[in-house]
Amino acid sequence: MFARLCFVIALSSAGGVQAAPAARLAWLQGDALVALQRSGDGALPLASVPRTPLGSLWKLFVHGYLEARGVQEPAYRCEAAQRLPDDDYCCDPGVSIGRDEALARSCGPYFEPKRLALSADDWSRFWRDHGAPAWLQRLDAMQPATELAVPDLLHALRQVPAPSRLAARQALLPLATRDGPVLAALGSGPRFKTWSWRIDGERAGGAAGWLADGTPFWFGAAGTSRTALRAQAPWIARQWSAHGLAAPQDDADALAAQPCIDVRFFQRYPIQAVLRADGSAAPAGALIGRHLVVFRNGTQLPVDALPALQLRLERDGPAIDARLPLEDYVARVVDREGRATEVEAARALAIAARSYVLQNAPQAEACRQIADDSRTQRVSPNPPSEAARAAAAFTDGLVIRGAEVRYHLDQASPGVLSWQAAVAASRRGDGFETILRATWPGMSLAGAQAAADCEALPQAHAWLLQRQQRWRELLRREAGYQPLGPALRVCQLAMGTPHSDQRRLEIRVREWLSREGRVTLIHEYLHLAFRDHPRGQDEAYIEQLAQRLADS
């Protein structure tokens, strides 16, 4: 796996790390290293292999390990009486912090291996089994002073299991939105952990993480991580753009973790017929390839259908539905409601469209449901254009908080975004955030679902507590069972996979009305109910018991 990069790993103090007065950027393209150094406004290939201190990046790997192993560690509490110096990065005195927030805030004490009682043997075995480089297999390397070649860091980031990478990307989204100039240049697709260090007495800083397609990257320059990123973000963006990485699409794992949107197309335009390329009527089922949609009003629309489009032959006539990943849906809205070549306006529209569907589309079974309708928002039945995909990818996961989202083609009013006004602002040079703030001055940009947010599902919560009483006698016979009280929370999951959080006594699910959804809800409940017993980590036992309870 490392045949094309045969570099020696050195674990030592940071004193031997080469000084970094110029900005440097590196990522993996396949197994090949792309390593650049800033030269004026351009870039030159690095003449030697860059090295880096690990700095705060070690927390990424501990976070990934905890996620992959399903560990339910206790929250970290900032004690008022015995406050540690690093607690300033964590929480106020007397307050506790959870895993994802600790990663975003760079709370070192949270991830200390001693606090977490991590086993060096288990750590080594886990990373060895995942093909990680030798340095990462050493638990004692998880400290800021560890020095290593940048390619070895990049290969380690690549070997983080996909679910852990997705969890880290979600946790790190607040860092992408924290600094306006950085967000304007790079967008929210790159998710990174920052690092700062002193090299030969001078400040150096940077970041490392993943692009949306899983590409691992590293950046370093003079200054603190914040000043270096702010100064160099436009240059970084130019290098990624030159290499076709300006707005890479989500990889398969990220795509599967997105919430899904069920769309009924042409809600206000009854369909007369759907014809194949040879003019024959299309049968019910998946639409693949070129089709012609004939409406009752006499108009016709050619559609390049993907398998996601489904034709239903109903009593009132043909109907076309689709189940789309959120970001694909957003890109289709940008194509239908706007013009994706108006770059900053299209990015603003992508955020507005994502916010609208998550604010207004009701959850039904596994997906949110919304009509293709001018009274909600219109959706293109064709695959998104590259420009629309880029607008969605650049704003990946961003939504508007603190405002009800509405927009219109040409009628601007308080709280209503005008597409034409957005285009005019874009052509004046305004960025997407400025465009949005002109309509919603009090808004903020945030992730589609921050870890601390809980959109409560009160009926699911009541159902679960009522069923707990019904299951009481059966569960009491199971070793390790602990009934849960009113502190249990059941929350709507907007993105990612269903899960439970022992620290918050919280369950996050997409839906619970179908049998599959109830099994998932019960499954996560059982993880909490057996949280202090080995059975709580036994997936086979938990799933078998969940299936049994679902039918009781």
Folded structure, characterized:
The protein has 552 residues and is an alpha+beta fold. It folds into three domains: 14-245, 3-Layer(aba) Sandwich (Beta-lactamase), CATH 3.40.710; 258-447, no CATH class; 458-550, Arc Repressor Mutant, subunit A. 36% of the residues lie in helices and 23% in strands. It is built from 19 helices and 26 strands. The strands form eight sheets. The protein has a six-stranded antiparallel beta sheet, sandwiched between helices. It has a six-stranded mixed beta sheet with strand order 13-16-17-11-19-18.
Query: Into which percent range does the helicity of residues fall?
Result: 25-40%
How far do the termini sit from each other?
50 Å
Round the Cα radius of gyration to an integer and report it.
25 Å
Mean pLDDT: 89
Summing up helix and strand content along with how strands pair, one would put the structural category as alpha+beta
What is the CATH topology assignment of the largest domain? Beta-lactamase
Count of distinct strands: 26
Q: List segments where confidence is low: pLDDT < 50 over at least 5 consecutive residues.
A: 1-16
Oligomer: single chain
- Mind telling me which CATH architecture of the largest domain this is? 3-Layer(aba) Sandwich
Could you name the key traits of this structure?
552 residues; alpha+beta; Beta-lactamase; Arc Repressor Mutant, subunit A; six-stranded antiparallel sheet; six-stranded mixed sheet; 26 strands; 36% helix; globular; disordered N terminus
